[in-house]
Hints:
By secondary structure, this protein is of the alpha/beta class. Helix content is 46%, strand content 22%. The strands form four sheets. Strands 13-14-16-17-18-19-20-21 form an eight-stranded mixed beta barrel. The site of one calcium ion has 4 residues, from strand 18.
Amino acid sequence: MDELRYQVDLLNAMNGRLQADERMYRLVCNTSLNAIVYIDCKRGTARTLANWDAFFPDVEIYTINDIAQIYSYIEEQSVLAFRDLLYTDKPGVNASGVFKLSDKKTYIEVEVQVVFDELGNLTDKIIRFKDVTKIHSQNDELAYMAYYDPNTGLINRNYFVSKLSDFVKRADDEGAVVSVMFIDIDGFHNYNDGMGIVIGDEIIQVFGQALKKYESENVLVSHFTTDLYCVAIYNPNNGLCAETIYHELREQMKTPFKLTNGSEILLTFCAGVADYPESASDSLELINCAEIVMFKAKDMGRGRIQYFDAPILKDFLINVDIENKLKEAVFNENFTMNFQPQFFTDSRRLRGVEALIRWKDKSGDMISPSVFIPVAEKNGAIIPIGNYVIKESIRNFVNWKKKFDTDMILSINISAVQYRTENFVENILDCISSYDINPQDIELEITESFLIADFNDVIMKLEILREYGIRIALDDFGTGYSSLSYLKGLPIDTLKIDKKFVDNICTDVSSRIILDTIIYMTKKLGYETIAEGVEDEDQYNYLKSIECDCIQGFYFSKPTDSEGIERLLLDGTV
Ligand code: C2E
Ligand code: CA
Ligand code: CA
């Protein structure tokens, strides 16, 4: 009896333990975030466990064959791989894979575990489904960021280069052409600085959208940085080539863009185009060539397109070379000053000298200021160069004054870039006062390019300078916009008529008529006139006959060094 009771107690105890275990396993299973399918392989039955309904609410699984219902949840192109994974039945293999669901949003990780008996027969299979969307969408985002520009949704520079390399390879195989167009929005920095970066970003987006519609299997559209875009066209033809995109975009831009802040802007852009294999031998070179000619287009003005050609590349390379050498020259002040005398036409008396910079590079070659000054204006080197010119020419001028007691004028060329610096006026005034010279002896030569920029600001600064007595000459008159009407009221003292008018006065009647008119009008406006580039006696005589006040040119004297000017002051020879 005791024995029987003992057996019953034992059974009860074991049963209680089993129930506790069962409860524990059920709890662990049901609170799991995963979904599980358990398959009894011998019987061919299956059960779903844990968080099943959250994954596949419409799928009920009782046999192995029911599992096929899950296929419709998996993204189409992955169904076969998914099926292969479920059928894993090799001993020792615990296989897994990540699949995207057909909702295109959810990623699941699927893990299959298989169990075998001592004879090697498959007995059980457990398939576990885990939601890994969070990790994977972060990966997607990272991948997106690696290839796309988030502001425009266009592909970024790196991805563009890699896809362009594919185009180039394909073009080699198929004997095709690849065209690259580099695009830059005109004056973007003015919008960005003036209206703020939010508006700047909006402009970048709007422009990107306008370009995006050209994207196709054969057209890549990329946003490089700020306002730079690049388009590649595989096998361009009359229907779609760089030129058609350029013209269509231009047409589209004729309608103002409405910004979210309510303002409207008219955008223009410049484009540079280069073709593979004609202009370059690989994708990077192709982009470089398109970029170089884009800068050339920019030099020509707004809304321009420029196609690659060899002379442009040559000019570019020369400029790069000059730019490099110039940095060193500025550092070591490897410059000297020359001075070209100017004379009163009537009396042939010395009126003054124009200071002209000279640069001999390390190899001893003279590099003309008309070549290096534009480079220096672009990279900012004109500021130290301009300061050197002001100081050095005034230093020489003070010497001559001391030695010869002359009343001549010193003319100094001033670049618009220099003039736009904040403290330009103070700098000049400081320099003049530190050398103790009469401001009326100094003349600043400016060009019409000054007047295009911020007209009112320029005029205001010029007026301050003139109040101190400094003279202002308008240089190269006739090479720029050259309208006689705008001369009226300009705060200038002198008008320098460009050499191109003087060149033909003895051979060409219309040149003579133009020159006559300019001189007549200028004198009426009360400005002094100087004719530049006078090379022979006939030109001199003609200028004298129409009462041009002063002349400057090789006929009287070439530019010379300081000693040359001293000789001129001493005995009238240069
Ligand atoms: P620019 O201001 O018009 O200077 C006159 C140029 O014409 C000088 O060239 C001068 O040598 C040249 N010239 C004068 N008379 C004749 C002539 O009868 N026939 C010919 N064929 N040429 C004549 P340069 O010195 O080569 O200077 C070229 C340009 O470089 C200048 O044109 C000016 O725009 C710029 N430049 C020169 N020095 C400076 C400087 O110190 N600062 C700045 N900002 N620009 C400078
Ligand atoms: Ca000049
Ligand atoms: Ca000139």
